[in-house]
Structure formats: C-alpha cells, structure tokens
Amino acid sequence: MKKVSKNIALLSLLSLGSFAFAQKVVDKELKTKKDQSLIVKSDNTEQEVKKKAAAEEKAKLPKPYDSKADARKDIESLLAKAKKENKNIMIQAGGNWCIWCLRFNQYVQTTPELKELVDKNYLYYHLNYSPDNKNEETFAKYGNPGDKFGYPVFIVLDKNGEMLHIQQSDVLEEGKGYSLEKVKEFFQKWATKS
Fold first, then answer.
1. Spatial contact of 101 and 37, defined as CB atoms under 8 Å apart
2. Beta strand pairing call for 122-128 and 88-94
3. How many domains is the chain built from?
4. What local confidence, expressed as pLDDT, does residue 44 receive?
5. Is there a single domain that holds both residue 52 and residue 80?
6. Measured distance CA(153)–CA(144) in Å, rounded
7. Are residues 183 and 96 in the same domain?
8. Structural domain of 178
9. Which of 24, 36, 87, 141 sits at 20 to 30 Å (Cα–Cα) from 119?
C-alpha cells in the first residue's frame, strides 16, 4: 500500500509540476502577445504621428499641379517657346497629393542656385497625375514612367519635343528632402548646351 501511495503522490507532484510548467508557458505566451500588442499599438501611434506631420507639411506647401490643365496643349505651347528660347523642357510629373512632389517643387523654388539653373536652362512644367486627371495620353507618350518609378518622376525633352531622359527622383533624395549636389548635377547634365 505504501508503494501505491508513493506512486500516487509522485504522480500528483508530476501533475502539479506539469501544471505549473504549463501555466508558465501560457503566462509567457500571454506576455509575449501583450508585448506584441503594445509594439503594434506603438507602431500604429508612430505611423499616425508621421501621417499627421506629413499632412500638416503638405498643407503648407504650394500646390503647383493643375488637375484641370490640358497637358498635351500645354506641352505643345512650351515646345514653341522652347524653340524660340533654345531651352529644354523639364517635366515634373506627379500631383498635389504627393508630398515628395511638393517638397521637390519647394526645394527648387526656394534654393536660389537651383532656381537660377532651372530658369536659365529649362521651361518647367508640372504634369498632373491624379484621380481627377490622369493625363493618360500624355503619360503613354513618354512610356508611363510613373508606373515604373513612382512620383515625382522627371521627363526631359529637347526643344523639338524629343525625349532625352527619364529621371526617377529617389536617387536625388537625402533624408526627408533632396541633395543639393545630386539635384544640381541632374539639372546641369540635361541643360541645353549653348
């Protein structure tokens, strides 16, 4: 009888030990899930803060894209002017919805060195892409570069309307803005050689 009692006692201890072990595993899993939940909440909060900051920044920046513009006609007019002035055409494709498009525009307009370089060498055009006006015919003419590179994307035309270059913008970025040297080099490379 003593042997049976010892076995029962041993089984009871094992069961209690197993239960305690199982409880520790469950507790650890619950803590992990709680920690993950906190991380997700933290990530969501961080994303919300970033979205709010971007929306505030976007609201303050000038909106150079005209969703009602007829891009085909506008570019034809620019070509006539480009021939007279012996300048290339710089098309910045994007939209007022695009923070990076607005940042680039603001950067060029407020950096005297870049503004002078652009004004001297290019006729500049903001080609709108938005739900209101996708300018599909114009974009198709240039191979739909936004589909491949995102926005903004730059299309450089010579004074005769021949496409010289497509430039993705991410290679011009630096931090939350653009690199002066990279942007300057890009504008200088595609300027009309006088």
1. no
2. parallel
3. 2
4. 82
5. no
6. 10
7. yes
8. 71-189
9. 141
What is the signed CA dihedral for 138, 190, 187, 159, rounded to 10 degrees? -50
Distance CA 146, CA 140 (A): 10
pLDDT, residue 194, reads 56
| pTM tops 0.70, yes or no | yes
**pLDDT value of residue 19:** 57
The domain that contains 177 carries what CATH number?
Answer: 3.40.30.10
Helices 180-189, 112-121: axis angle to 10 degrees equals 10
Query: Looking at the domain assignment, is residue 150 inside a domain?
Result: yes
CB neighbour burial string for 120-148, b if at least 16 within 10 angstroms, e if fewer: ebbbbbbbbbeeebebeebbeebeebbee
In a domain? residue 65: no
Q: Encoding tokens for residue 73?
A: 């006609």
Phi, psi of 153 (to 5 degrees): -135, 145
Same domain, 33 and 105: no
Structure tokens at 17: 């030990």
Q: Are residues 55 and 118 in the same domain?
A: no
Residue with tokens 């506008």: 74
Higher local confidence (pLDDT), 71 or 10? 71
Residues 79, 87: Cα–Cα separation, whole Å: 9
